[in-house]
Amino acid sequence: MTLETPLSRVLGAKTAKAMAESLELHTVRDLLRHYPRRYARRGEMTRLDDLQVGDRVTVLAQVRRVTTRRMRNRPGSLTEVTVGDGAGEMQLVFFNRRHGNLREGAWGLFAGTVGEYRRAKQFAHPDFHLITGDDDEDWARALIPIYPATKDVSSWVVQKSVRLLLDASGGFGFVEDPLPEELRARHGLPSLPAALLDVHRPTSQDDVDRAAERLKWDEALTLQLVLAARRRAAALEPGTARPPRGGGLLDAVDAALPFELTEGQRAVGEELAAELSRDSPMHRLLQGEVGSGKTVVALRAMAQVVDAGGQAALLAPTEVLAAQHARSIAAMLGPLARAGELDGDPAGTRVVLLTGSLKAAARREARAAVADGSAGIVVGTHALLQEGVDFADLGLVVVDEQHRFGVEQRDALRAKGDRPPHVLVMTATPIPRTVAMTVYGDLETSVLRQLPSGRGGVASSVVPASDKPAWLDRAWERLREEVAAGRQAYVVCPRIGDDDTGSAETDAPDDADGAPEEAGGGDRRPPLAVLDVAEALHEGPLAGLRLAVLHGRMTPEAKEATMRAFAAREVDVLVATTVVEVGVDVPNATVMVVLDADRFGVSQLHQLRGRVARGRHQGLCLLVTELSLASATGQRLTAVASTSDGFELARVDLETRREGDVLGAAQSGRRSNVKLLSLLEDEELIAAARLEAAALLATDRGLADHPGLAAEVAALATDERATYLEKA
């Protein structure tokens, strides 16, 4: 037997097929790496009271009562079994089925989906496995493993399958340990066979803890080795150096800036300038607070590349943002952005906007300028990725708000260079250190925390509209006061309206950072819509003010006209979807009211809030919700309102999300290889694994002396997830 042995050879065809179809377990390795979700202790409380309706769970409980009666309104009988665990009770319901072996006093494992009838929790037709007594070695143990399971493959089937593997192999002795012995000794880790035995058949909680620490190391080190190898391979790629040259666009940008660069902007700018000057491609992640000036840093890098004879492409997530970037870059460069035109400077370049809504003639002209190299700075949306968009000499790819793009899209733009271009990925969604070391572990990271001087800052408050309706009235009064003082406001809604069926904004992510739904969310009213809210405000609390709407179904021309009118102060209040989430820059806007704020994620709310107070006036963000502040989501909104530190909020965000999704399982389309590693709890372990990975690969022989570890890395490297990591 080896780790690659098919389960069908050990468990039989029927069980193996069920495990493959239900749990994606195909080999001995898959089954051994399918760790228990938790452990039940016979006779201890497993907290039936804590179960939530809709959860599919396995519980350890004792039969308290069994009653069978004829049903009144239809033929047949109903058997009700009450089970308890010392902390609570629940009902098991069986229709027209006899279960004579369910007798009072019997202990068993019961698996099903938690339902509710007359305010009492119940399982309807649950699967169950009775514990037969102390002669059954599996059930006599102090800790009974409860595995992730499905209705077709129960926890006890997984447990018996692991036992079969154990019996067939004589104690997992066939498992080779991939970790170097000196590394295990340095960190006090048990061998892999011992860890697998302890995680699947522990005798104490200490066994579980010791095994979990070792198995987390397997996950962390393998990931970090793949990422370290990516970094080393990227450093060896043949790129093109783009050193700074005086008297060109970069000097013009610096001269045109109406403000002094912050210390952080200068420091990051020097980092980028040095990396662009090397002949190996830059791969850098620039993360920073909303409003910290990332775009200016990126523009200076683009100007340096153009000065060195290359082209720079800026990929933006929406047409509104792409148009704004193109407009602001052209305004900053002045005649230097209009080379070849009557009033242009021949020493400059052209700034070209390429979006999907361009008319055919304009699209042909833009593509021609990109292809012949006369367009040094190309700003666009997904249209940049289309066939027929060919660059003369693509030197730098800048991806703005990277979380809004799939990895394939970023990779497609990078592939348009004859030689690998430099890559700068930007995000205003701060990333916890552990995420940066994993999902973005193959990118060097720069951070901008300092905000430009002269910003007014944003005060945030939660408005519980149901509990305190007077607060909502006061919110609209407060907005009117700001408009009366000559300033402007945003009102943000989750959806558009009319024939919109409740889906999120079409050109914004569907709550990309995972706002959790409250229990019973299916009974809630539909999310508020821009078109409905705008009409209600126009006739009600904001009557007399100049209102306009902005959403993803409008034509690009209408969007552009609306944004221009808002920027020109011809509109007092912009009622919009999350199309304004990133990049929209109107310094005179000082108030934002987010309706149904509970339907947005933490990072998304932080992004939205960054649209106000971009000038010298104090800003105000009001998060309106109908949920109670005591609810989990209410507390999440309170956390957003209590701090403007995006990095602190990133940790709050991570706490509300499934870590497997953060680590890329959802985006790669595969199960996550990370099962035990916690981005919240294992920061020190991940950092240590990163150092060990770098040290292993820095030796002359690399992993040649560690074939087991090389095999683990190779297995991950051929996985779709490794492709995701490579492109990220």
Automatic annotation (TrEMBL):
Phylogenetic lineage: Bacteria, Bacillati, Actinomycetota, Actinomycetes, Geodermatophilales
Record Pfam families: DEAD, Helicase_C, RecG_dom3_C, RecG_wedge
Gene3D superfamilies: Nucleic acid-binding proteins, P-loop containing nucleotide triphosphate hydrolases
Family matches, as NCBIfam families: PRK10917.2-1
GO biological process, one term: DNA repair
SUPFAM superfamilies: Nucleic acid-binding proteins, P-loop containing nucleoside triphosphate hydrolases
Alphabetic keyword roster: ATP-binding, DNA damage, DNA repair, DNA-binding, Helicase, Hydrolase, Nucleotide-binding
UniProt protein name: Probable DNA 3'-5' helicase RecG
Molecular function in Gene Ontology: ATP binding; DNA binding; DNA helicase activity; hydrolase activity
Biased composition (Acidic residues): 499-516
The Helicase C-terminal domain, residue ranges: 471-655
Mitochondrion listed as a keyword: no
UniProt xrefs under InterPro entries: DEAD/DEAH_box_helicase_dom (IPR011545), Helicase_ATP-bd (IPR014001), Helicase_C-like (IPR001650), NA-bd_OB-fold (IPR012340), P-loop_NTPase (IPR027417), RecG/Mfd (IPR047112), RecG_dom3_C (IPR045562), RecG_wedge (IPR033454)
Stretches for region Disordered: 496-526
Classification via CDD domains: DEXHc_RecG, RecG_wedge_OBF
Domain Helicase ATP-binding per the UniProt entry, residue ranges: 275-448
